[in-house]
């Protein structure tokens, strides 16, 4: 009896196993998901345009029509070379390229300080950039008011809107006194005025904070230290750094409270020690604390292995980017100038600089100094730039928090050669051609509409992007 029970059990198990195998054979595995191509990497491709001394614009051209055309020519050059951002100096000398309650119209617009031009300059600059899908970053210097050749020369007459008691003079430069609370507030209010009145995409500062003085000079701020800092700081250097810290913090706080979509960027000098000890700009702290959204160090050096080379400077700066973002500032002005050495006498080293930057995952783009040198095109630097920027890209998300994705476009369809979809509120759209699994998709174009004309057969999908360039998930694919 025991034997029969075991035999029955064995037969039962075999039967079940057989059924299970048959069931497995009957199950049809789901088809492999039609995974689209990988999205191409996003990248900011920008250029600086300097207006102090009229360097890039308007270059002593005071006719409004000619000024506008020169700027449009610059923008068209950017579009032609698939660039997507301009960092335009709108306040280089405590002057204004806009109607300001704090400072008068810049002399570099009309040739005479305080004379109102015939058009709203900043509105024009921003609108023309946006027409071409170019991001506009308003570049200003926080403290510099004017310069002179030496102390034997006179400074230009002080703008009547600027209280004399807020200024401090040195041998070659007049500045807003960084130690004064009134100055700290004034600079913050100037930023608020700009972002409230104009649709700029960013506020940008370069490396002018406390002035780099002549060897014979002192900062001459002991009285301010006694009044405002001695009770809190053990030394005057920390007091100076804190004065700048307050401005940086307050600017970002004002941006967040007023227009949180605005990007706050700073382009420091490449030498961290000089920033910290001479300009009293504690850029590493600003980066670590998240007070600055984007850092763009001025890496105006040739490639190499020495400490001051492009490579080693970029290696160092990459270590001090935390939750914020890193772009690289390229000194294209040096190429073709014999004063800067042999490596700058051809465009070969510029290509090497770009190639090295691409090995750094934290780098999200480039800004070139400056736009007039693209026009001059010495030693054919534009050949390198066209090669590096040969395919169109989207701007990266440079926000200060984790990106919140917009909703995904739906109801994607093709009618004839027209691709269309259901829209997403307050978004623009990117149209991609799917090149297959494990391939990089091709960015065909961007649009604010919900239709797009296709020029070649293929499979396409769409994404939505918000004002901060955060991108949605991919839509369903359709074939044309």
UniProtKB/TrEMBL annotation:
Lineage top rank: taxon: Bacteria
Family matches, as InterPro entries: Divisome_Glycosyl_Hydrolase, GH, GHL10
Taxonomic path: Bacteria, Pseudomonadati, Bacteroidota, Bacteroidia, Bacteroidales
Keyword flag Isomerase: no
Start and end residues of each Glycosyl hydrolase-like domain: 43-338
Organism whose genome encodes this protein: Bacteroides intestinalis
Keywords: Signal
SUPFAM superfamilies: (Trans)glycosidases
UniProt cross-references to Gene3D superfamilies, sorted A to Z: Glycosidases
Protein name: FenI protein
């Amino acid at each position: 009896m025991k034997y029969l029970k075991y035999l029955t059990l064995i037969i039962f198990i075999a039967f079940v196993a057989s059924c299970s195998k048959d069931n497995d054979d009957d199950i049809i595995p789901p088809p492999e998901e039609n995974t689209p191509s990988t999205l191409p990497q996003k990248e900011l491709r920008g250029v600086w345009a300097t207006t102090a001394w009229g360097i890039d614009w308007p270059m002593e051209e005071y006719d409004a029509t000619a000024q506008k055309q020169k700027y449009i020519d610059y923008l068209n050059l950017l579009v032609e070379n698939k660039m997507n951002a301009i960092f335009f100096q709108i306040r280089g000398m405590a002057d204004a390229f806009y109607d300001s309650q704090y400072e008068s119209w810049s002399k570099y617009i009309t040739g005479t300080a305080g004379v109102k031009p015939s058009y709203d300059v900043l509105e024009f600059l921003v609108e023309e950039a946006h027409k071409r899908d170019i991001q506009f970053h308003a570049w200003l210097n926080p403290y510099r008011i004017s310069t002179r050749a030496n102390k034997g020369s006179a400074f230009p007459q002080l703008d009547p809107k600027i209280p004399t008691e807020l200024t401090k003079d040195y041998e070659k430069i007049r500045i807003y006194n960084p130690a004064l609370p009134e100055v700290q507030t004034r600079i913050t209010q100037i930023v608020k005025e700009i972002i409230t009145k104009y649709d700029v995409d960013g506020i940008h500062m370069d490396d002018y904070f406390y002035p780099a003085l002549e060897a014979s000079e002192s900062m001459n701020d002991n009285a301010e230290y006694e009044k405002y800092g001695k009770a809190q700081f053990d030394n005057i250097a920390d007091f100076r750094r804190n004065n700048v810290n307050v401005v940086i913090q307050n600017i970002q706080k004002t941006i967040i409270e007023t227009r949180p979509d605005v990007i706050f960027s700073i382009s420091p000098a490449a030498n961290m020690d000089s920033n910290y000890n001479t300009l009293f700009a504690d850029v590493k702290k600003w980066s670590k604390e998240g007070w600055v959204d984007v850092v763009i160090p001025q890496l105006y050096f040739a490639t190499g292995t020495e400490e001051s080379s492009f490579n080693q400077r970029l290696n160092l700066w990459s270590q001090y980017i935390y939750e914020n973002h890193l772009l690289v500032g390229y000194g294209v002005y040096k190429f073709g100038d014999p004063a800067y050495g042999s490596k700058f006498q051809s465009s070969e080293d510029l290509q090497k600089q770009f190639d090295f930057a691409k090995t750094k995952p934290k780098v999200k783009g480039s800004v070139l100094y400056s736009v007039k040198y693209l026009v001059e095109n010495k030693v054919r630097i534009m050949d390198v730039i066209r090669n590096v920027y040969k395919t169109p890209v989207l701007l990266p998300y440079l926000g200060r928090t984790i990106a919140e994705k917009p909703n995904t476009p739906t109801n994607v369809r093709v009618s004839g050669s027209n691709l269309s979809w259901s829209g997403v509120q307050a978004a623009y759209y990117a149209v991609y051609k799917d090149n297959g699994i494990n391939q990089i998709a091709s960015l065909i174009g961007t649009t604010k509409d919900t239709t797009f004309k296709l020029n070649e057969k293929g499979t396409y999908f769409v994404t939505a992007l918000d004002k901060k360039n955060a991108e949605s998930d991919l839509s369903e694919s359709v074939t044309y």
